[in-house]
Write a structure and sequence with these properties.
It catalyses: 2 H2O2 = O2 + 2 H2O. This protein is of the alpha+beta class. The chain has 15 helices and ten strands. Helices cover 27% and strands 14% of the residues. It has helices spanning 6-11, 51-61, 95-98, 158-165, 181-189, 194-201, 248-257, 261-271, 327-331, 350-366, 446-454, 457-472, 477-490, 492-501, 521-524, and strands at 74-83, 104-112, 127-135, 138-145, 215-216, 221-224, 230-239, 277-286, 312-321, 344-345. Helix 4 (158-165) runs antiparallel to helix 5 (181-189) and helix 12 (457-472) crosses helix 14. The chain is globular, with a radius of gyration of 26 Å. Strand 6 and strand 7 (230-239) form a beta hairpin. Strands 1, 2, 3, 4, 5, 6, 7, 8, 9 and 10 form a ten-stranded antiparallel beta sheet that branches. The chain binds protoporphyrin IX containing FE (HEM). Protoporphyrin IX containing FE (HEM) binds at residues 68-71, 74, 109, 111, 128, 130, 143-145, 150, 155, 158, 218, 300, 333-335, 351, 354-355, 358-359, 362-363, 366.
Length: 532
């Protein structure tokens, strides 16, 4: 069945249109006056017995919830996803990816990463691209970004990384993601960041519109078919409108003129019936080819070059409906990499493994306790039957005597082992328990160079200008120098061009430019052209 509207219909039960209704308290008692508090005498103190005053102010006092620790600023929209055909059935039992008659409702949230909820849209930053598929087999979340790699390889570094990226703790400056000492200090000491930093300095970090932005699942995930056979997979979203960026100067002006630029663009386009579309594609790697690459498939700082493994189209997503209440929907939506359905599973990517812990953990506090999956935006359209009970924010009245298994009294939810259930992918694991990064994760430069060499002349110029601007704001000279000493391993011409722009001597050594031409050199003799 096409269940494209199942989520819309489910939300009917939660919608509240209060226009024209009469004011009441939370208890449903009608109130005739809400402009003055109850006072003793004409100019006397407010009385404690004024329950309407206390309820009104107390609720207001508690209106805010913590913003997300990262990706705090976002914009969301509803839509649906439908596969073109069933070819992926050889690799996965996930019906929403393989049955072309099934239209699955989705909610997508786009976001910036570093800024606070009220920050500007057009900053230089990574963009989040998180999709919740409300499938018949349960919720599946593809929690991706608009860049195909990440800054770090192991999630244990995530708190360090985010502390370095966020505004500095002593003065909470700057709001910008990258133009400050702590970010570049971290980059210079953690060369695994370099590939992603190249993407961040490119125009990819300045999307013209959320509608014109690619999305990537980043990690290597695993598809699992009916025989229990696994296939490695990378997920790609490709915008039908093509990928387009702003240029830096436009970003600066737009941030002042309309801080909601990307958010407004998405909203207006949907209101105007110009529904943005993305094609979902996959790169598939047979398990027998796990070690066929000169990088590790479990390393999230690496792409699988499309020349080696092409992206194959799976289906299309259309976003066609704006939320009705920002807080209820866009703010309270809770994405989680561990929300998977039968046919999709994890790999041992240590970044992914950390994420699988972190999202649920943070949402327990952000959304007030263990029942946030019952918040309307998060509720699956699939049936939910658990033996979990009680807790803050419980919305259901569970009937019956039992909430445990096994039980002989009836009631409760037994676990049934049929072919439709989620079964973790079975694989053999052995090895020494050890806290150490795998040797196969140590090449931090080749793909950064690959990215640099893939850029056209003017794109290279933009990257050089971005480095000059960002590093130009770094106060500690030794940090600037260390970044240059890393860049030289990516490409000597790049390092030289950046050095000239920030008034430093180019570092010694480094790789020859194996790119086509070296347009960045055109900037090499204009010191300070972009640094301010
Ligand atoms: C939020 C993507 C790595 C922890 C988000 C969001 C996205 C995202 C898109 C926003 C979700 C939303 O719109 O609500 C990614 C990607 C990563 C990555 C693509 C790397 C490939 C990590 C890691 C951790 C982490 C390594 C922790 C170890 C978080 C947390 C949130 C978040 C705590 C806030 C969630 C919430 O409050 O609901 N991430 N992230 N992320 N991410 Fe990640």
């Amino acid at each position: 069945m096409a269940n494209g509207d199942a989520k819309h219909e489910q939300l009917d039960g939660a919608r509240a249109d209060l226009s024209g209704t009469e004011l009441t308290t939370q208890q449903g008692v009608r109130v005739d006056h809400t402009d003055d508090s109850l006072q003793a005498g004409d100019r006397g103190p407010t009385l404690l017995e004024d329950f309407h005053f206390r309820e009104k102010v107390t609720h207001f006092d508690h209106e805010r919830i913590p913003e997300r620790v990262v990706h705090a600023r976002g914009a969301g929209a509803y839509g649906h996803f439908q596969p073109y055909d069933s070819w992926l059935r050889d690799h996965t039992v996930a019906r929403f990816l393989t049955d072309p008659s099934v239209s699955t409702p989705v909610f997508v949230r786009f976001s910036t990463v570093a800024g606070s909820r009220g920050s500007a849209d057009t900053v230089r930053d990574v963009r989040g691209f998180a999709t919740k598929f409300y499938t018949e087999q349960g919720n599946y979340d593809l929690v991706g970004n608009n860049m195909p790699v990440f800054f770090i390889q192991d999630g244990i570094k995530f708190p360090d990384f985010v502390h370095a990226v966020k505004p500095e703790p002593h003065n909470e400056m700057p709001q910008a993601a990258s133009a400050h000492d702590t970010f570049w200090d971290f980059v210079s000491l953690q060369p695994e960041t370099l590939h992603m930093v190249l993407w961040l300095m490119s125009d990819r970090a300045l999307p013209r519109s959320y509608r014109m932005m690619q999305g990537f699942g980043v990690h290597t995930f695993r598809l699992v078919n009916a025989e229990g056979k696994g296939t490695f997979v990378k997920f790609h979203w490709k915008p039908v409108l093509g990928s387009h960026s702003l240029v830096w100067d436009e970003c600066q002006k737009i941030a002042g003129a309309d801080a909601d630029f990307n958010r407004r663009d998405l909203w207006d386009a949907i209101e105007a019936g110009q529904h943005p579309e993305w094609e979902l594609g996959v790169q598939l790697v047979d398990e027998s080819d796990e070690f066929a690459f000169d990088f590790d498939l479990l390393d999230a700082t690496k792409i699988i070059p499309e020349e080696q493994v092409p992206v194959r189209p799976v289906g299309k997503m259309v976003l066609d409906r704006n939320p009705e209440n920002f807080f209820a929907e866009t703010e309270q939506v809770a994405f989680h990499t561990a929300n998977v359905v039968p046919g999709i599973d994890f790999t041992n990517d240590p970044l992914l493994q950390a994420r699988n812990f972190s999202y649920l953990d943070t949402q327990l506090i952000r959304l007030g306790g263990p029942n946030f999956a019952q918040i309307p935006i998060n509720r699956p359209v699939a049936e939910v039957n658990t033996n979990q009970r009680d807790g803050y924010g419980q919305q259901r009245i569970h009937r019956g005597q039992t909430s445990y298994t096994p039980n002989s009294l009836g009631g409760g939810c037994p676990a049934i082992a049929d072919s439709e259930v989620f079964r973790h992918y079975q694989t053999r694991v052995d090895g020494e328990k050890i806290r150490r990064r795998s040797e196969s994760f140590t090449d931090h430069y080749s793909q950064a160079t690959l990215f640099w060499n893939s850029q056209s002349d003017w794109e290279k110029d933009h990257i050089v200008e971005a480095f000059r601007f960002e590093l130009g704001k770094v106060g500690h000279q030794h940090v600037r120098e260390r970044v240059l000493a890393e860049l030289v391993h990516v490409d000597r011409d790049l390092a030289v061009a950046v050095a000239h722009g920030i008034g430093l001597e180019p570092p010694e050594g480094g790789t020859e430019n194996h790119g086509r031409s070296s347009p960045a050199l055109s900037l090499a003799n204009s010191p300070g052209s972009a640094a301010t």
